[in-house]
Amino acid sequence: MNVKSVLLAVLIPFAAYAQGFAGLGTATQDFATPQRPAEFDFPADHGPHPDYRIEWWYLTANLKDEDGTDYGLQWTLFRTALAAGEVDGWTSPQLWMGHAAVTTPDAHYVTERLARGGIGQAGVQADPFEAWIDDWQLAGPDFDNLRMTATAPDFAYDMQLTAQGPLVFHGDAGYSVKSAQGQASYYYSQPFYGIEGMLSLPGGDIPVTGQAWLDREWSSQPLSEDQTGWDWFSLSLGEGKLMGFRLRQTGGSHYTAATWIAPDGTTTPYPDGAFQADPLTVTDVGGRDVPTGWAVRLPDRGVEVEVQAINPQSWMSTSIPYWEGPVTISGSHQGRGYLEMTGYD
Amino acid sequence: MTRAGLAALLSHWRRNPLQLFTLVVGLSLATALWSGVQAVNAEARASYDAAAETLGEGQFAQITSPTGSIDQSTYIALRRAGWQVSPVAEGRLEGIRLIGLDPLTAPGGLGPVDLSDGELTVNVLLSGVLFATQATLDRLPPLDVATQASTEVAPDVILTDVGTAQRLLGLEGQLSRLIVAPVQPKTQPPLADIAPDLTSRPPQAGSDVARLTDSFHLNLTAFGLLSFAVGIFIVHGAIGLAFEQRRPVIRTLRALGFPLRRLVALIAVELLALSIIAGAIGVGLGYLVAAALLPDVAATLSGLYGASVSGTLQLRPEWWLSGLAIAVGGTGLAASASLYRLSKMPLLASARPRAWAMQAGQGRLWQGVAALALLVLAAALAWGADGLVAGFGMLAALLIGAALALPLILDRVLAFGASRARSVMGEWFWADTRQQLPGLSLALMALLLAMAANVGVSTMVSSFRLTFTGFLDQRLASEFYVYADDAEQATALRAYLEPRVDRILPIQNATQDIRGVPSEIFGPTPDATYHDNWQFLQSAPDAWARIEAGEGTAINEQLARRADIAIGDAVIIAGQPFDVLGIYGDYGNPIGQALITEATFEALYPDITPLRFGVRMDPQGVTPLSIALRDDFGLAEANMINQAGIKAFSLDVFDRTFTVTGALNVLTLAVAGFAILMSLLTLATMRLPQLAPVWAQGLTRARLGRIEVIRAVLLALLTAALALPLGLALAWTLLAVVNVEAFGWRLPMFLFPLDYLRLAVFAVVAAVLAALWPARRLARTRPADLLKVFSNER
Question: What ipTM was reported for this prediction?
Answer without folding.
Answer: 0.92
